[in-house]
Specification:
Elements (H helix, E strand, L loop, with lengths): L12 H15 L4 E6 L6 H14 L3 E6 L10 H6 L4 H4 L6 H14 L2 E6 L6 H13 L5 E7 L6 H7 L4 E4 L6 H12 L5 H11 L3 H13 L9 H7 L4 H9 L4 H12 L6 H8 L3 H13 L13 H10 L2 H18 L3 H10 L6 H16 L3 H14 L23 H16 L4 H9 L4 H17 L3 H15 L4 H15 L6 H10 L4 H13 L4 H13 L11 H11 L3 H18 L2 H18 L2 H16 L4 H18 L2 H14 L11 H11 L3 H18 L9 H11 L3 H18 L2 H12 L5 H16 L4 H17 L3 H18 L2 H13 L17 H11 L4 H8 L3 H15 L7 H5 L6
Parallel strand pairs: 1-4, 1-5, 2-3, 3-4
Helix pairs in contact: 1-2, 5-6, 6-7, 8-9, 8-10, 9-10, 9-11, 12-16, 13-14, 13-15, 13-16, 14-17, 17-18, 18-19, 19-20, 19-21, 20-21, 21-22, 21-23, 22-23, 23-24, 23-25, 24-25, 27-28, 27-29, 28-29, 29-30, 29-31, 30-31, 31-32, 31-33, 32-33, 33-34, 34-35, 35-36, 35-37, 36-37, 37-38, 37-39, 38-39, ...
GO cellular component, one term: cytoplasm
GO biological process, one term: regulation of DNA-templated transcription
GO molecular function, one term: ATP binding
Length: about 900
């Protein structure tokens, strides 16, 4: 147990109490973030060391890491220290931030966890993003994240830790004059004269590191603490660590100085033999030099590491830049010869000045490519830019097991391949320099490299709202590459079809190309989507979409959007079972591939499916995952789309304010009008305005959405009940003739297409226009009948609620009760809270006594609890459930725990029998 009697923790009682409280909270399932922010030498490391000891004593598993300035470009370097077995996983699915988060959550599920990171200001970007994700979600995990960092080195990724909801910031203060006096007196084993004590406090400024060094110097120098020694105190420890370090080094041998310099150059995790060789010392001499440096308090006795980062910084800064560069380059060669991790070798090369070295270019290209594969494009950009500076004509070797998404194809010149990789990395990092590098690579002599570059460049154009330029770029590349690689040419044609969809004025060109393209899966997927938007019968749309998905080829390319077009088409024609099967299959592929883009796409598709055909809680969970993923990717259109999907689920759940806020955020994220009308942004704003009692403004928003559809030749909204909402808005605005005409037209179209859900919604909206109660009831009877033929429980709940309310208004209260009871039950099942309340209120008015919402038994489960319990009952593991539903492992555990309590069971094996036939409902 660490006590405040320990000299190093003097005047740190408040910080220790906070750390203990947060560690105890983690033991009881309440996570938090503790940031220890102070200047160098102010005691951060000591507090973190105390926290580790406290955590171990409290029974928490402790993971530790230290940031290093030389390793800021080592992809996931800090995370690799926390999870040493991560090497293989980093190249696969666990490289993704969500996967890493789940890894920590899984460890915390086994035992409460303390994650301690010192010098976090030097952590690499990938590690900081991972820790940031953990910090945002930590409150419901038995985890405490403790990070030490300096206050003068903030950046956005560090600021994200401070912004975490559960973050506490500690600022260890300089030691008081009294504390300095007590510490120095303890070292001298006697009382201090006030003048001596004052000199000690002024000399150190209360910096704990300088106080420690002063105690060491005074004890070794035979000081007694008298007033006559005050001037000597001021000279004993210079005002800076740098002068102190150099003073000690000057007392040592040349061998010790050489080793001190070598250790400052190499990474602390490097094999000691590399440092010895860099210092030019055989092992016996090196061991003696190490002992001498440890004796002066500069190096740790047991390993080649400085006792404090400031010590290392002082030695490093004393080496002139030209010599430093040569030493780093020599260290890189020694590391290569010793078989060190190539990322550590690359760190040495990055610290040296460029020297047009082909071998260095090869190393940096491989490490840059590896960083790109592992999901850290910022690190990749730094490595690849440096590789470009190292060579003009070398041929870097591609890394083994290269991901298809980051190609180095064919026997090509290094600059072209390097420019391609660099452009891809910059594109994924959101760096505008991607355009120039990809454009240069697209002019390469090799048509395959040029085509790959054109493919990436086109995506940059699309994201930037330049769909026409994207089409021109791809057209030229297709013509060049078709004779040598027809398969790649087909890939580019698929990208072209997708890109054309992002410009309303290119809709006709897209249709022409679709008409003459061969019937391969991606083309069929786009055709199915187009057919759905142009109002084709549901059977025709379904047949084309199923052909697109039949051979499974689209699922094997999860980063390509074609499979999502097919799924959207299926959902648009209410083919719920087929769409769900496709989503489940895509989910499995995405998990295997570890594709962040693919994960975002499938999370979005699941959010849409759950909204229309499942339950709104699940839709919200998947939508939030999609937003979090898309926030880390370039492309505002996708962000607007996922925010709109989540807002739609929130609106139907009754959370109007949050839905409105999300749309406001989406408007800021994407100001261009090239966003696809499939997004339904304006239509959903119209629904919210209607909910607020502003029908005229609602009509204007919906008409803006419909104008986008007309520019594309679309006659059917693929998402949200747009036209049914417009009927209601027109009626509320008193424009009854327009509302009736629209209702009749939409009713005919829905029946002709075989869309029973759309038919039901139009009938519900049209019933408001009835001239008599009997006519209203008749319309709503038809609405209920149509809704029962639809796979959407939400639509059925809406129709039954409207029908029951109409019966009650027609003074048929007894007849109203059964449909209202069924509506209420369905609303509970789907998570439509506002609709459930409306059905409940109507039941009360109809003279019924609605049963209380069940709080136990199968009926008491929320939709999310029920879904998790059903999957667990089928034998799925918690991790598989989390991945399938796009929620965290902790969320699954919480839902299961609540389900156990409501069902009165204590184990997973009891779920199937307890749920019984209820799960099938």
């Amino acid at each position: 147990m660490i006590t405040v009697a320990d000299a190093e923790l003097l005047e740190r009682e408040t910080e220790l109490l906070t750390l203990r409280a947060q560690l105890d909270a983690a033991r009881h399932g309440c996570g938090s973030v503790v940031l220890v922010e102070a200047p160098a030498g102010q005691g951060k490391t000591t507090l973190l060391r105390a926290a580790r000891a406290e955590a171990a004593a409290a029974g928490l598993r402790t993971l530790s890491a230290i940031g290093a300035d030389l390793e800021r470009d080592f992809a996931f370097g800090v995370i690799r220290q926390l999870l040493p077995d991560l090497d293989d996983a980093v190249a696969d699915s666990h490289a993704r931030l969500h996967g890493l988060y789940e890894r920590f959550a899984a460890l915390a599920g086994e035992q409460p966890l303390a994650i301690v990171v010192d010098d976090a200001q030097w952590a690499d970007a990938g590690s900081l993003k991972t820790l940031g994700m953990l910090a945002r979600r930590i409150e419901h995990l038995p985890v405490v994240l403790i990070a030490g960092l300096r206050p003068d080195q903030h950046e956005p990724l560090i600021d994200a830790l401070f912004a975490a909801p559960a973050a506490t910031v500690l600022h260890p203060a300089p030691l008081s004059p009294d504390a300095v006096s007590r510490l120095v007196a303890t070292a001298l084993d006697g009382e201090l004269d006030p003048e001596f004590a004052h000199a000690a406090s002024r000399t150190t400024g209360g910096n704990p590191l300088l106080v420690r060094e002063l105690r060491r110097t005074l004890a070794a120098g035979g000081f007694t603490g008298s007033a006559s020694e005050a001037d000597a105190v001021r000279r004993a420890v210079p005002g800076t660590i740098a002068r102190l370090v150099h003073g000690r080094l000057n007392r040592l041998s040349p061998e010790a100085l050489a080793l001190a310099r070598a250790v400052a150059i190499v990474c602390p995790r490097t094999d000691p033999g590399v440092a010895y060789a860099l210092a030019g010392l055989p092992e016996p001499l090196a061991a003696g030099a190490h002992a001498a440096l440890a004796g002066e308090g500069l190096l740790e006795a047991g390993r080649l590491r400085y006792t404090h980062a400031m010590m290392r910084e002082a030695v490093y800064a004393s080496v002139v830049p030209a010599t430093r560069s040569l030493l780093h380059r020599r260290a890189a060669r020694l590391m290569q010869e010793a078989g060190a991790d190539e990322s550590l070798t690359a760190a040495q090369l990055l610290a040296a000045e460029p020297a047009r070295d082909p071998d260095a270019a090869a190393v940096l290209t491989r490490t840059g490519e590896a960083a790109l594969r592992s999901g850290d494009p910022d690190v990749a950009v730094h490595h690849l830019r440096r590789a470009l500076a190292e060579t003009a004509a070398s041929r870097p070797a591609p890394a083994a097991g290269r991901d298809e998404a980051v190609p180095l194809a064919g026997d090509v010149s290094a600059p072209a391949a390097l420019l391609l990789l660099l452009g891809l990395a910059e594109s994924r990092a959101g760096d505008p320099a991607a355009h120039a590098h990809l454009q240069a690579a697209a002019a390469a002599g090799d048509p395959v490299v040029a085509a790959r570059a054109a493919q990436a460049l086109a995506r940059v154009h699309v994201v930037s709202g330049r769909a026409e330029q994207a089409a021109d770029t791809l057209d030229r590349a297709i013509e060049r590459v078709r004779p040598v690689d027809p398969e790649l040419a087909a890939d580019l044609e698929d990208d072209l079809l997708d890109g054309l969809n992002y410009d309303h004025d290119l809709a006709e060109e897209r249709r022409r190309r679709l008409a003459r393209a061969e019937d391969r899966p991606a083309v069929l997927a786009h055709r199915a989507f187009e057919l759905a938007a142009r109002g084709a019968p549901s059977d025709e749309v379904r047949a084309v979409a199923e052909r697109a998905l039949a051979d499974g080829a689209l699922f094997e390319r999860p980063e390509q959007p074609a499979v999502l077009y097919a799924i959207e088409a299926l959902m648009a024609v209410e083919a719920a079972a087929e769409a769900q099967a496709a989503i489940e299959r895509l989910c499995q592929v995405v998990r295997r591939a570890g594709s962040r883009v693919g994960t975002g796409g499938v999370a979005m598709a699941r959010a849409r499916w759950e909204h229309e055909f499942g339950n709104l809680e699940a839709a919200q969970e998947a939508g939030r995952v999609a937003i979090e993923i898309q926030a880390g990717l370039s492309g505002g259109g996708a962000t607007r789309s996922v925010r709109t999907a989540l807002a739609a689920a929130l609106l139907d759940a009754g959370d109007v304010d949050e839905a409105e806020q999300l749309l406001a955020e989406a408007l800021v994220s994407e100001a261009r009008d090239t966003v696809l009308p499939i997004c339904g942004f304006n239509a959903l704003r119209g629904r919210i305005l209607l909910e607020r009692g502003r029908p005229q403004e609602a009509i204007a928003e919906i008409e803006q959405h419909l104008a986008l559809e007309r520019r594309r030749g679309w006659v059917a909204s693929l998402r949200n009940p747009t036209r049914a909402t417009l009927i209601t808005a027109l009626a509320d605005a008193g424009r009854l003739d327009e509302a009736r005409a629209l209702a009749q037209a939409q009713l005919s179209r829905a029946r002709a297409r075989g869309l029973h859900g759309h038919e039901a919604r139009v009938l519900v909206a049209g019933a408001r226009l009835a001239l008599a109660r009997d006519e209203e009831v008749e319309w709503l009877e038809q609405a209920v009948a149509a809704a029962r033929r639809s796979p959407s429980r939400l639509i059925l709940a809406e129709a039954l609620t409207a029908y029951g309310a109409a019966l009650r208004r027609a003074n048929r209260r007894a007849d109203a009760r059964d449909p209202l009871r069924e509506a209420r039950e369905l609303a509970l099942l789907t998570g439509a809270k506002a609709l459930e309340k409306r059905a409940h209120d109507e039941l009360v008015i109809a003279g019924a006594r609605p049963q209380r919402v069940a709080v136990s038994g199968p009926e008491g489960l929320t939709p999310s609890e029920r879904r998790v319990a059903e999957l667990a009952a089928q034998g799925h593991r918690n991790r598989d459930i989390a991945e399938a539903l796009f929620v965290t492992l902790k969320t699954v555990e919480v839902h299961l725990g609540r389900a156990y309590g409501k069902l009165g069971i204590s184990s997973r094996s009891q779920l199937a029998d307890t749920l019984g036939g209820y799960a099938a409902r």
